[in-house]
Amino acid sequence: MTKILHTQELTTVECVCGIAYAIPESLYDQAIKHKAQHTLYCPLGHQWHYMGKTDAQKLREAEASIVSMRDQLDAERQAHERTKKRVAKGVCPCCHRSFTQLKRHMTTKHPEFVAAH
User: What is the C-alpha R_g of the chain?
Assistant: First the structure.
């Protein structure tokens, strides 16, 4: 009898029935790459195929979402600053008309706000 030492990378997976087991990493990669085309079986005989997103895909989507949220936040901050500057100059933020009374009020009652903007 000949003995062969064989090493292989295994990836752990969990079936919907709750049993956790390991499969060759190459098989797992194929299941992810081809999604529903590769049907796999848990040790209890349940069929499954990979339909979800990989951790790398989830991470890329999360990073893109963070960038998008930061861009939206920056845009909101800029819009808020523009509104504050306009109010400091006596412009109504709703109808965009200039009011001398508002300008006078801002200059006399809130000079620190006008100076800041």
Answer: 31
Find the mean pLDDT for residues 6-15: 90
Same domain for 66 and 93, yes or no, is yes
Does 4 reside within a domain?
no
The answer to whether residue 37 sits within a structural domain is yes
What range defines the domain where residue 32 resides?
10-48
pTM exceeds 0.85: no
Q: Confirm whether 103 is domain-assigned.
A: yes
Q: 35 by DSSP, 3-state: which?
A: helix
pLDDT (tens digit per residue) in 50-85: 777 777 788 999 999 999 999 999 999 999 999 999
Exposed/middle/buried for residue 86 (C-beta within 10 Å: 0-12, 13-18, 19+): middle
Q: Does the residue 68 lie in any domain?
A: yes
Per DSSP (E only), the strands in the chain are 10-14, 20-24, 40-41, 47-48
Of all helices (H) and strands (E), which one includes residue 86?
A: helix 55-88
